[in-house]
Amino acid sequence: MKRIGILTSGGDCQSLNATMRGVAKALYKICDDIEIIGFEDGYKGLIYSNYRVMQPSDFSGILTKGGTILGTSRQPFKLMRIPDENGLDKVEAMKSTYKKLNLECLVVLGGNGSQKTANLLREEGLNIVSLPKTIDNDLWGTDMTFGFMSAVDVASNAIGYIHTTAASHSRVFIVEIMGHKVGWLTLYAGIAGGADIILIPEIPYDLDAVTQAIAARNKSGKHFSILAVAEGAVSKEEAALSKKELKELRKKEPSYPSVAYRLGAAIQERTGQDIRVTVPGHMQRGGEPCPYDRVLSTRFGAAAARLINNQEYGYMISMKGGEITKTALSEIAGQLKTVDPECSIVQEARAVGISFGN
Ligand code: F6P
Fold first, then answer.
1. Overall CATH class of domain 2-147+289-332
2. Are 2-147+289-332 and 153-284 the same fold in CATH?
3. 13, 117, 196, 226: least CB-packed within 10 angstroms?
4. What's the distance, Cα to Cα, between the start and end of the chain in Å?
5. Where does residue 342 fall: left (phi above 0), alpha (psi -120 to 50 degrees), or beta otherwise?
């Protein structure tokens, strides 16, 4: 009998269950004698040996169910080599659980940090197949991650809802979109939601350019503006600072809950215009996976089962040029897929009049 472990790690997203379902259904179909072990709460379950034997029925009826039936947790990669509060060596503990259960392979559904840990376990001799999860779409080695399009749905709807009230009151609205390091979600949701200004970490903004874009709309008779702003958006001045210098600067400034409030205060001070802030927050990771993600997850899941059946380990399932393929974990670990400020989607957004505040 082949025994396969599976876990979902890091921040959740809408399509984790759909992906596990894809893996499991395809595995049960192609492998004669197979048992799937589900680890609870991500790598934590592997470290502390919390698991359950899954049944085929566990993977039924979960295509449209958000969250994860296994639970998840953040176990930072940088702490993996540091013993826990009881002195437990986490990497050795994970290897020992894997060996004790006599696993053929471990399937990891996760984002950047989780892929790094997956690669670490591969280096330690475990058979790994991973799948690219994140609403941020910032994973190296794949054009698309599952969860991203569902989050785009939620975030663009949020921007869409703001339109009517912004127009009625002639207000400037800032909608803060998730993404501390990369702006894919803000870029897509901003375009899909009809934002007038999109600010992302990869294109540091100039406050003058932002206020000019708002003024230009006012002049053209549009007395409201909507800004889609990534959590990690920074000004040109901030981008030029080191981490330490930025920390010092923040200490001197009034404290704001997040970037949208800080930016809102700056715009209000300059323009005197009424500003409102909306933060959809974790709603962006909630609810059902959109149809695109259900298809992607099914395809990814089936591809993962194929790799396992062929005993091809050490890969993350990925999508390149519309085709499902695989990328070596060693190639992915530690890399980030950011938005190229000159990429065509940015240029096309500019072409229809969207400002990037620079
Ligand atoms: O990586 C996914 C993500 O949702 C980011 O977009 C966001 O910045 C972060 O996780 C939020 O993390 P947490 O759920 O731990 O607050």
1. alpha beta
2. yes
3. 196
4. 59
5. alpha
What was the pLDDT predicted at 25?
A: 98
Query: How far is it, in rounded angstroms, from Cα 190 to Cα 197?
Result: 8
Tokens of 318: 């990925």
For tokens 């503006």, what's the residue?
Answer: 225
Instruction: Compute the distance between CA of residue 183 and CA of residue 202 in angstroms, rounded to an integer.
Output: 7
**pLDDT digits 0-9 by tens, 305-318:** 999 999 999 999 99
Q: Which of 12, 114, 136 to mutate to test the pocket of ligand 1 (most atoms within 8 A of CB)?
A: 136
Cα 297 off chain centre by: 15
Whether 136 is catalytic = yes
The domains of the chain are located at 2-147+289-332, 153-284
Summarised one tens digit per residue, pLDDT across range 233-264 is: 999 999 999 999 999 998 988 999 999 999 99
Cα 270 to averaged position of ligand 1 atoms, centre (Å)? 31
> 302: which 2 tokens?
């089936």
Q: Which residue among the candidates 136, 138, 153, 293 is catalytic per the annotation?
A: 136
Give the per-residue SS3 of 193-217: HCCCEEECCCCCECHHHHHHHHHHH
Mean pLDDT of the chain: 97
Q: What is the CATH number of domain 153-284?
A: 3.40.50.460
Tokens read off for 216: 């230009």
pLDDT at 96: 98
**281 Cα–ligand 1 center, Å:** 9
